[in-house]
Amino acid sequence: MVINMGPQHPSTHGVLRLLLEIDGETIVRIMPDIGYLHTGIEKTCEAKFYQQVVPMTDRIDYLCPMTNNLTYCLAVEKLLGLEIPPRGQWLRVMLNELTRINSHLVWLGTHAMDIGAMTVFLYCFRERENILRLFEAVSGQRMMTSYFRIGGVAVEPPLDFFARVKAFNDTFPGHIDEYEGLLTQNPIFVNRLKDVAYISKEDALALCATGPTLRASGVDVDLRRDAPYSGYENFKFNVPTSTVGDVYARYLVRVAELRESQKIVAQALAGLPEGPVKADAPKVVLPDREKMKTQMEALIYHFKIVTEGFTVPEGEVYQAVESPRGEMGYYIVSDGTAKPYRVHMRSPSFANLQSLQTMCEGRLIADVVAAIGSIDIVLGDCDR
Amino acid sequence: MAFEPAVTDLEQLKSHAEVACLLAWKAAAVEGAKFDRNELSIYVERTALRGACTTLKSDPALQYDSLSDVTCVDWIPTDPRFEVIYHLFSTVTKKRVRLKVRLAGDQAAVDSLVPLWPGANFFEREVFDLFGVRFNEHPNLKRIMMPDNWEGYPLRKDYPVEGYR
After folding, report:
1. pTM of the model
2. CA–CA separation, A291 vs A313, rounded Å?
3. Burial A271-295 (b: 16+ CB within 10 A, else e)
4. pLDDT digit string, tens, across residues A84-104
5. Is A179 an 8 Å CB contact of chain B?
6. Which residues of B touch A340 (CB under 8 A)?
7. Cβ separation A346–B71 shorter than 8 A
8. Nearest to A205 among B39, B91, B94 (CB)
9. CATH architecture designation of domain B10-105
């Protein structure tokens, strides 16, 4: 028998439709049907100036907007050969890790709620609210931040920003203990997760899984450490892995990642260098408002960038970063004009979704819900 | 704003293990290579793609064991029109390489990589859906993003951004 799960189903985390071929309660085959959120962002990017693409990237993966901004900006900066000053890089790292915490908190809350633990959801969203307020302070937006720009970040953060990040970051380990206290040893939670939706190391690699899904199956890959970008080589952190490969292992890996991200934020706060947050490239980076109002040259550059964009030398780059879900990659082809010839996003949700069949084959329907939660997909990211 | 100019000379690029490995396997399979902005691209002959991937995957020194991405670029009006692009990543050496296959406009088709990496399935369906490039021996070559009855291939350059009205 074939039954339909989604696209409007509370545990499919968005508009994911699964066709389940079942034998009684047992899954024989899963056929994911995606594309409900396809908005043709890749095509739209080809019609925009390079700097106009930044706000589009937020909308791909709405739980980690900063990671998408970062990947796109790094790719264009690589095409341009642009160096970002240290302060800009460290700010990017700090906000990127806050984004990871934000995304993992939504995952933890919804995943636990799918399993039946309602309380954790409210706790997670309490902390997430603090992070969104920090994002609002720095960019004026809670979710679609567009704070990272080609050549650095938009503006220097407000004066009290770092004190607020520190206040949040110092209390956060206590909150992780709180979530863990509710879940990690909870027999109901553990029974629903342990030995469920197992995927082997070989299968995970063959199915192009990345991120925590891959690391929980015993492959030690983290692009922050293995292919450092934006100054990640200056930070010390562990890469949590597990060899068990079930839903519980993925849960433990992600919770451990929360703690590592907290440490990175602490290091970024402690060692934040002084200096400018934007590169010195007047033809690419918009001038400060003050300069634009007082200096003729700055006004001309401002006018040129806004009306004509800036040209990017011919070439192609693939830039991958470690997003909360796995490898987020941007492949950009430039033909030497002010608009990208092709922008392709390699999204982790899209690739990770393929593991679902292997994870759920021969398991019960109730386990599908746990499996979907454990690969942490975002359908905006998946469909683009 | 300065970077090294791109290197496209195959003789010079032999110092890269990936190029040397593929040339040793089958010299006719390598149509060209490029090293630009620290990224290596290798043009592979259309029929040799699967063999080239198998070689890179099984070579004990390279071990390109995972497929990062498959995508396509439409270079109309150039002939051959399409470039299908594969990004391979090694979880052992943590290196990346880009393979490219050039395909002529009409009847564009290339061998599927699903036998090597089952995860190529979705990526190839996406390229088929948005560019109309076919993948031989693909188990389920259907549209994935667009509705099944959609006409045209949206990411082709001759498809207007605002769609057909």
Report:
1. 0.91
2. 27
3. eeeeeebbbebbebbbbeeeebeee
4. 999 999 999 999 999 999 999
5. no
6. none
7. yes
8. B91
9. 2-Layer Sandwich (3.30)
Residue A10 forms part of a structural domain: no
Cα–Cα distance measured from residue B131 to residue B107, given in angstroms and rounded to the nearest whole number: 12
Total number of domains in chain A: 1
Q: In this structure, what CATH number is given to the domain that contains residue A221?
A: 1.10.645.10
Which single residue is written with the structure tokens 């192009």?
A208
Q: Quick check: is A26 in a domain?
A: no
The reply to whether B81 touches chain A by the CB within 8 Å rule is: no
Contact A265, A165 (CB under 8 A): yes
Q: Record the tokens describing residue A375, joined without a space.
A: 């690969």
Centroid of chain to Cα A97: 9
Domain range for residue A350?
39-383
CA torsion B14-B17-B20-B26 (nearest 10°) is -150
Phi-psi group of B113: left, alpha or beta (phi > 0 → left; psi -120 to 50 → alpha; rest → beta):
alpha
| CA separation for the pair A374, A229 (Å, rounded) | 27
Inform me whether the pLDDT recorded for B105 exceeds 80.
Answer: no
Q: Which of A9-18, A70-79, B91-100 has the lowest mean pLDDT?
A: A9-18
- Give the span between the Cα atoms of B88 and B97, in whole angstroms: 5
Over pLDDT 70: what percentage of chain A? 99
Q: Which of A274, A269, A224 is nearest to A70 (CA)?
A: A224
Q: In chain A, whose CA is at the least distance from the CA of B1?
A: A81
**CB contacts < 8 A (A, B):** 99
Q: Is A33 part of any domain? A: no
Asked if pLDDT for residue A8 goes beyond 80, the answer is: no
Residues B103 and B110 sit within 8 Å (Cβ to Cβ): yes
Is the residue at A243 inside a domain? yes
Best of B91, B99, B131 to disrupt the A interface by mutation (most A CBs within 10 Å)?
A: B91
Which value does ipTM take for this structure?
A: 0.91
